[in-house]
Amino acid sequence: MNKIKVGIVNYLNTKPLIFGIQRAPVVDQLLLIEDYPANIARMLMEGTIDVGLVPVAVIPHLKEHHIITDYCIGCEGPVASVAIFSEVPLEKVEKVLLDYQSRTSVALAKVLLRKFWKMEVELIDTKDDYRSQIKGTTAGVVIGDRALEQRKVSPYIYDLGEAWIAMTGLPFVFAAWVSNKQLPADFIEAFDAANKLGLQHIETAVAENPYPLFDLRKYWTEHISYELTPNKRKGLEKFLEFLFAESAIRKV
Predict the structure, then answer these.
(1) What is the mean pLDDT of residues 222-241?
(2) Which of 79, 157, 220, 243 could form a disulfide with 161 if both were Cys (CB 3.0 to 4.6 A apart)?
(3) 136 — alpha (psi -120 to 50), left (phi > 0) or beta?
(4) Is the pLDDT of residue 214 over 90?
(5) What is the DSSP letter of 116?
(6) Are 37 and 55 in contact (CB under 8 A)?
């Protein structure tokens, strides 16, 4: 039997999910491939993986997509690991460096800067580690583990999950399990159960991943919200509406 290729983000926020997948019976049916979000998205678009925990901003770019589980990387309050970091208050920022590792966080930052903070700033794409350039009136969108590190450096932190909720009243979904084809129902059921298994063993995952910079128990239980609830789906739909509107504007 050909194994199903599964792409997953190699950040701390996915450790509980990886814990469950690696210990559930479904692990024998899959090949787990770890990378950062934008690369997982690229692999899903190219068809080199069958399903991935991908930034939701990639969904409009897929010819076919299926959200296959009841789990995601989302937030119902401050997410802690996706933010704009700055040395000065946001109203004094002139340039914003954009994290190359995630399509969704960059798209979210653009939406919030324009619609929530009502700001026109210069947006700069990045390729390598750019955090040393976050100084003066140049801010930066930083995501994932590096964002948890940056919290110790930058005096001003603007949490993108918190800002989205303030603007829309809805939770946010950063990444979801998306396939680019119809997968077997028994695999989907077993894979969903594997995600659930991981979240039932948060304490063990904390013990296996010592991390001095941030309280992982708090991160995984208070900042990251893993259940893909109906309300989170509404938040996802709202965000995709913004993306489709932006796409239409650019084509005019």
Answers:
(1) 97
(2) 79
(3) left
(4) yes
(5) I
(6) yes
Distance of alpha carbon 139 from alpha carbon 127, whole angstroms: 16
Contact (Cβ atoms closer than 8 angstroms) between residue 18 and residue 199 = no
Mean pLDDT of 135-158: 97
Pairing between β-strand 122-125 and β-strand 95-98 as defined by DSSP bridges = parallel
Calpha distance 28→223 (Å, rounded): 31
Mean per-residue pLDDT over the chain, rounded: 94
- Regarding pTM above 0.85, the answer is yes
3-state class of 117 per DSSP? coil
For residue 129, give the amino acid letter: D
Q: What is the pLDDT of residue 252?
A: 30
Q: In the structure encoding, which two tokens stand for residue 102, read together?
A: 């995630």
pLDDT band (50, 70, 90) for residue 249: very low
User: In the structure encoding, which two tokens stand for residue 51, read together?
Assistant: 């399903």
Where residue 196 falls (left for φ over 0; alpha for ψ -120 to 50; beta otherwise) is alpha
Locus of tokens 């989907």:
188
- The three-point CA angle 218-77-61 to 5° equals 110
Residue whose entry in the numeric block shows the structure tokens 């695999």: 187
Label residue 247 by pLDDT band (50, 70, 90).
low
Spatial distance between the Cα atoms of 116 and 91, rounded to a whole number of angstroms: 12
